What we know:
By secondary structure, the protein is an alpha+beta fold. It is 28% helix and 33% strand. The chain starts with a helix and ends with a strand.
Amino acid sequence: MAKKKNKKNNKNKRNNSPAVAPKAKFSTPEKKAQKPETKKEATKNVAKKTEKKSVSGKINVKKLAVIISAAVVLAVALVLIIIALLPKVPETAVSEYNGQNATSSVVSNITVDEETQLERYDEIRRDIKGDKKKFKFYSRPAIEIDEKYKEGTLMFSNLTTNECTMIVTIMDEEEDIIFRSMGIEPGKCMQRISLSKTLSFGKHKVMMYVTAYDSMTYEIVGTQYMKLDLMYGDEYSASDEEEISSSETTTDKNITRPVEATKATSQTTYTTEATTVNKTVKVNKTTTEKVS
C-alpha cells in the first residue's frame, strides 16, 4: 500500500511542476543562389586576375634586373681594381720585330725533350704575368753578372711547342733598358746576356719582358713579364773600392818598398811589389826571418 501511495505522490509532483519550454532551434539562413556570371563579368574577372599576375611579374623582373646590374657593376669594379694593381708594361719594353733573329753565336738549339721543357716552364709559371695562354718560355729566376765583362747566365728558352719568335727586354728599377735581344726562334736557347748599363754592386730587382711575334707577319702575339734577381759584381767594402780607384793611376812599373821592423826576438823584412793590370791590384809578399 505504501508503495502505491508513493507512486501517486510522484505523479502528482510531476503534474504540479511547471512546464519546461522546449529549446529553440536556430536554423541557418539558406544561401541565396548566385546568379550565373555573364560573359562580360567573366571577361572582367579574368582581366583583373591576369593584371594582378602581370604586375607581380613586373615587380619580380625589376628586382631581378636590379640584382643582375648590381652584380655586373661589382664584377667590373673588381676587374678594374685588379688591373690597376697589376704592374703596367712600359711602352719602351715592347719593340718592333722586323725579322732579324739572333745568330748562332748568341743562341743554340734546345737539347732537352719537350717534356723536360714543360717541366722547367712549370717551375716558373706562377711567377709569370701577362698573356700566359699564348706562349711558353723558360728562364732562370736569378742571374749573376760579372762586373768586368757585364755578362751573366740567363738560360732563356723559347719552347719548341711555340709557333712564335720572342724578343727579351730587361729593365732595371728605374725602367731603363739594360738588355734587349734579337729575335729568338722556337726551339732556341739564349744562355748568356751582356748588359748595356753599368749597375752598382749588389742585388737588384729587375723586370724581364718577353714579347712574342708571329714569325710570318711580325705582328705582336702577346707580352709576358716576370721579376728577376740580378746580382751585379762582388760585394766590395768601401776600402776595397778606394784601393781599386787609387790603383787606376798607377803605371805598370814595378815599385819596391822595403819596410823593416825590429823586435826583441826577431827581425822581419817585407818586400812588396805592386802591379796594376786591367784595374786590379796584385800583391806579392816575400818574408825572411832571422832570429838573433
